[in-house]
């Protein structure tokens, strides 16, 4: 896995697209700045020929075996179609404007609506303002974002989609509304023939760790861990760890003074997925009301 992901990382760190004009389905887009990068490429703020601001995800597939590259292109095409379908059900899915694949360069492009900062950036900015003292954001905002995240996971699971990589970095703010811009790594991981492609401590332990005597398996409860991990990050400004007391506050910090929030952390940050709550239990939890 490392070789492929390192290749993606090196390519996405190359900012030679900034200030360039890129044609996507024959339409020109001026790339203005890079917003972020990940295992599968980078995302740029751009502007269409009509002046509309957009975000463009650039996915580099050069260096992959042809069959895997083609499989991954199909996965992204299916994802774009599914995102468009899910957007009819939920306000928490970004608008996709276009998708194109340039076979000559081995590059795929997804053009979508441009949002504001990510939840991760917001938390880090607000935590910096409080110098790390107390919750990163106020309790009402924590609960509002929590309910939106539960809605997102509920929509995914109702459509038999397990994201596997929910984290503050891929929750985008549009005003006060959180949106997702992808459907996670499950299908992409299968297309690449790779495992363990999540994010440490935000992805569930069963995704990131090998347990002797147990076959690696992923189910909907992987996203429940991610919900708890994001909530923990909103409260304490750090990720939880993979241990039996993952819901406890970081060493030296007091427990958050909300029994319902602490209980939902205890029900979500459970190493054993069979003992972890499901999305229906979380929806009915007092903290989600």
Tags for this model:
single chain; 289 residues; alpha+beta; Transferase(Phosphotransferase), domain 1; 2 domains; six-stranded antiparallel beta sheet; two-stranded antiparallel ribbon; 9 helices; 8 strands
Provide a quick synopsis of the model:
The chain folds into 2 domains: 2-113, Orthogonal Bundle (Transferase(Phosphotransferase), domain 1), CATH 1.10.510.10; 119-288, Orthogonal Bundle (Transferase(Phosphotransferase), domain 1), CATH 1.10.510.10. Helix content is 37%, strand content 19%. The chain has 9 helices and 8 strands.
Write structural notes for this entry:
- The chain is of the alpha+beta class and 289 residues long.
- It has two domains: 112 residues, Transferase(Phosphotransferase) domain 1 (Transferase(Phosphotransferase), domain 1), CATH 1.10.510; 170 residues, Orthogonal Bundle (Transferase(Phosphotransferase), domain 1), CATH 1.10.510.
- It is built from nine helices and eight strands.
- It has a six-stranded antiparallel β-sheet with strand order 1-2-3-4-6-5. Strands 7-8 form a two-stranded antiparallel ribbon.
- Strand 1 and strand 2 form a beta hairpin.
- Helix 7 crosses helix 8.
- The N terminus is likely disordered.
CATH topology of the largest domain: Transferase(Phosphotransferase), domain 1
| CATH architectural designation of the largest domain | Orthogonal Bundle
Instruction: Give the strand line-up of the largest sheet.
Output: 1-2-3-4-6-5
Enumerate how many helices there are, as a single number.
Answer: 9
User: Could you tell me how far the N terminus lies from the C terminus, measured between alpha carbons in angstroms?
Assistant: 41 Å
What proportion of the residues is helical, as a percent range?
Answer: 25-40%
Main sheet, how many strands, which sense, barrel? 6 strands, antiparallel
How many strands appear in the DSSP assignment? Answer: 8
CATH class of the largest domain: Mainly Alpha
What value does the average pLDDT take? 86
Structure classification: alpha+beta
Please tell me what the overall shape is. globular
User: SSE order, as H and E?
Assistant: HEEEEHEEHHEEHHHHH
Unreliable parts: 1-13
Strand content: 15-25%
Evaluate the radius of gyration. Answer: 19 Å
Number of domains: 2
CATH fourth-tier homologous superfamily of the largest domain: Transferase(Phosphotransferase) domain 1
Protein name: Protein kinase domain-containing protein
Binding site for ATP: 57
Keywords: ATP-binding, Kinase, Nucleotide-binding, Serine/threonine-protein kinase, Transferase
Pfam families: Pkinase
